[in-house]
């Protein structure tokens, strides 16, 4: 049974970790001759899952602690945590035939089996490390390709369920905390300029989601017609541009609005300490100014690592129980958890 622990990227020990929480490289692959998961039957999906179990033995030579888990065998809280920690998608944690995930205990490697594609290989590193993340996921791809024949076209490249992933099947994204730009009113203009440079900007949970807690994913827009290294370099270049703008905004706030930032963080701490219930969205909104304050001033007991961990412990993905009672209980537990983790913080 898999037990969740904070993934390695929450340690905030990578390059530019005060602003860039993590970098994820993801490769989409499908088994040749097998219908994509959206069209495949249960037996096809189970066969793909068995291929994953067999191929895990090869991966274990380099990553000896990697294991295969049946999604249905993972308890509900842990399934929700997988999504909040960006190790799995909301769709992946839905129990179904052939649904599986390969996990390395630190959370650096996560491979979704029978999501939108048969295999979605992920490498997730702390801070801004697009080249290192790509090289790691490329190693995983090479190892799996020794025992699995992936669907490939000489003209189009790797075949994927979504046309947006056709070609290399590579998506590289940097998760960035852009509270400084939001505070000085330049966030929209900066993100618009980034999009014009050929990247996508999405919210906390990717496509279709919002920038909860001032968190945004910057990723490559195209996967076809460019070498993988070039895609990684493009994401790095745009992320570095946004990083410069965010640092400039934080410097302005440090000199002109530092007291305002600290007041906002202090007020949010008081709200957390006095709240009986806190929704997941409110939790991320409350934590964002606190994380910003921790980056512009020394606050005893408060650092990026603690705040990163809290952001993946907020259970933004709801359980399957839609009842008001279940929601109220979850909100009450979240408030208690936040109070406990932030106890003793001294401004």
Write the layout of secondary structure elements.
Elements: E1 20-29, H1 42-59, E2 67-70, H2 76-84, E3 100-103, E4 109-113, E5 119-126, H3 130-145, E6 152-153, E7 157-158, E8 170-177, H4 179-184, H5 187-196, E9 199-202, E10 215-220, H6 228-256, H7 258-274, H8 280-296, H9 304-311, H10 324-341
Antiparallel strand pairs: 1-5, 1-8, 2-3, 3-4, 4-5, 6-7, 8-10, 9-10
Question: What are the main properties of this structure?
Answer:
8-stranded antiparallel sheet; globular; alpha+beta; two-stranded antiparallel ribbon; 43% helix; 347 residues; 15% strand
- What number is the mean pLDDT? 90
Main β-sheet description: 8 strands, antiparallel
Question: What is the helix fraction of residues, given as a range?
Answer: 40-55%
SS-based class: alpha+beta
Alpha carbon gyration radius = 20 Å
Low-confidence stretches: none
The arrangement of helices and strands along the chain is: EHEHEEEHEEEHHEEHHHHH
Strand content: 15-25%
| Largest beta sheet: strand ordering | 2-3-4-5-1-8-10-9
> What would the principal axes of the Cα set say about the shape?
globular
* Cα end-to-end separation: 41 Å
Report the strand count: 10
Structural notes for this entry:
- With about 350 residues, the chain is an alpha+beta fold.
- The protein contains ten helices and ten strands.
- The strands form two sheets. Strands 2-3-4-5-1-8-10-9 form an eight-stranded antiparallel β-sheet. It has a two-stranded antiparallel sheet with strand order 6-7.
- It is globular, with a radius of gyration of 20 Å.
- The chain starts with 19 loop residues before the first strand and ends in a 6-residue tail after the last helix.
């Amino acid at each position: 049974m898999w037990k969740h622990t904070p993934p390695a990227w929450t340690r905030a020990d990578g390059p530019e970790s005060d602003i860039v929480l993590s970098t994820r490289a993801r490769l989409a692959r499908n088994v040749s001759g097998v219908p994509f998961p959206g069209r495949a039957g249960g037996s096809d999906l189970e066969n793909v899952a068995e291929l994953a179990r067999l191929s895990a033995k090869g991966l274990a030579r380099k990553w000896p602690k990697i294991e295969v888990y049946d999604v249905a065998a993972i308890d509900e809280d842990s399934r929700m945590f997988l999504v909040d920690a960006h190790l799995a998608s909301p769709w992946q944690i839905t129990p179904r035939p052939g649904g599986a995930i390969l996990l390395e205990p630190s959370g650096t490697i996560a491979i979704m089996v029978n999501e939108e594609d048969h295999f979605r290989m992920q490498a997730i590193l702390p801070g801004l490390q697009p080249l290192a993340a790509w090289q790691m996921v490329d190693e995983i791809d090479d190892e799996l390709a020794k025992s699995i024949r992936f669907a490939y076209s000489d003209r189009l490249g790797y075949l994927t369920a979504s046309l947006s992933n056709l070609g290399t099947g590579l998506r590289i994204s940097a998760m960035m905390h852009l509270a400084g730009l939001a505070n000085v009113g330049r966030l929209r203009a900066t993100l618009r300029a980034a999009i014009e440079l050929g990247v996508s900007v999405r919210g906390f949970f990717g496509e279709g989601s919002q920038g909860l807690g001032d968190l945004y994913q910057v990723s490559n827009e195209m996967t076809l017609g460019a070498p993988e290294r070039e895609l990684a370099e493009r994401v790095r270049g745009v992320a570095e541009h946004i990083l410069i703008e965010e640092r400039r905004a934080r410097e302005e706030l440090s000199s002109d609005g530092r007291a305002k930032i600290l007041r906002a963080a202090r007020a949010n701490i008081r709200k957390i300490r006095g709240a009986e219930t806190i929704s997941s969205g409110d939790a991320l909104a409350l934590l964002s100014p606190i994380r910003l304050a921790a980056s512009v001033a020394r606050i005893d007991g408060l650092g990026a690592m603690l705040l990163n961990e809290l952001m993946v412990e907020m259970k933004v993905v709801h359980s399957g129980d839609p009842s008001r009672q279940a929601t109220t209980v979850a909100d009450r537990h979240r408030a208690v958890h936040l109070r406990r983790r932030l106890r003793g913080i001294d401004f």
